[in-house]
Design a protein that fits this description.
The protein has about 190 residues and is mainly alpha-helical. The chain has one domain (about 20-180): dinb family like domain (Four Helix Bundle (Hemerythrin (Met), subunit A), Up-down Bundle). Helix content is about 65%, strand content about 0%. The chain has nine helices and two strands, in the order ααααβαααβαα. The protein has helices spanning about 5-20, 25-45, 50, 60-85, 95-100, 110-130, 135, 150-170, 180-185; strands spanning about 90, 140. Strands 1-2 form a two-stranded parallel ribbon. α2 runs antiparallel to α6, α4 packs parallel to α6 and α4 (about 60-85) runs antiparallel to α8. Bound molecules: nickel (II) ion. Nickel (II) ion (NI) binds near residues 68, 160 and 164.
C-alpha cells in the first residue's frame, strides 16, 4: 500500500475515536497532543553551558524557544474562547520581538515552563475534543492574516510547536557547541543521524 493509503487509514482511525469532527480536525488535535512528547525530551537534552546561550545577540536560545512554547498557550486558549463567544471577534497579533522586553523569556524558570506546556496542552486538547465541525469553521479577523479560523489557528499552533522544536534542534546539533546530553553519553550503537 502506498503512503497516501496508509495516511488515510490513520486518519480514519482518528475520526472514529473522536466522532464529533472529520479527519482534518482530528489530525490537528493528535499532532497537538503528541508534540510535548517530542519537544520536552528535546529541550532536556540541552547541556547547561548552551541552554541559555544565544547563537547571535538577537536570536533566541534553546531556553527561550522552549519557554515561548509554554507562553503562547494561554493566548491561544483566550483566542479560542473569544472566537467561540464573540459575534465579530478581532484578533491582535502577538510578536515577542515587538511586544516584550528582549530578556523576558530568560527570566522564566524552564522546569515550570515545561510543566505548564504539558499541562496547558492536555487541557487544550480536551477542550478541542468538545468542539463540533461548526465550531472549527468559526472565524475571526486578524490584523496580520487574510483569514483566520479555529481550524487554521490550531493547525498553526501544531506547526508552531515544530517550528520552534526545529530551531532548538539546530542549536543542539551545532558543530561548534557541546553535543546534546544523552547522545554524548550513549554508546555508538544508539547514534542516529
Ligand atoms: Ni513563535
Amino acid at each position: 500500500m502506498g503512503l497516501i493509503g496508509q495516511v488515510g487509514q490513520v486518519g480514519l482511525v482518528g475520526a472514529g475515536q473522536a466522532g464529533l469532527v472529520g479527519q482534518s480536525e482530528n489530525v490537528v488535535i493528535e499532532s497537538l497532543e503528541r508534540a510535548p512528547a517530542i519537544v520536552v525530551p528535546l529541550v532536556r537534552q540541552a547541556p547547561k553551558e548552551t541552554l541559555t546561550r544565544r547563537p547571535s545577540p538577537r536570536k533566541w536560545s534553546i531556553h527561550e524557544h522552549a519557554c515561548h512554547l509554554a507562553d503562547v498557550q494561554p493566548l491561544m486558549w483566550h483566542r479560542l474562547e473569544l472566537i467561540l463567544s464573540d459575534e465579530e471577534p478581532m484578533i491582535r497579533s502577538y510578536d515577542p520581538g515587538r511586544d516584550d522586553p528582549d530578556d523576558r523569556l530568560l527570566q522564566i524558570d524552564l522546569t515550570d515552563a515545561l510543566e505548564r506546556y504539558v499541562r496547558d496542552r492536555a487541557r487544550l486538547v480536551e477542550r478541542l475534543r468538545q468542539l463540533d465541525e461548526s465550531d472549527w469553521r468559526k472565524t475571526a479577523r486578524h490584523d496580520e492574516y487574510n483569514s483566520y479560523s479555529i481550524h487554521a489557528m490550531f493547525r498553526h499552533l501544531a506547526l508552531h510547536d515544530f517550528f520552534h522544536a526545529y530551531r532548538i534542534e539546530e542549536l543542539l546539533l551545532r558543530l561548534d557547541w557541546p553535543p546534546p546530553l544523552d547522545l554524548a553519553d550513549d554508546d555508538d550503537d544508539h547514534r542516529e543521524r
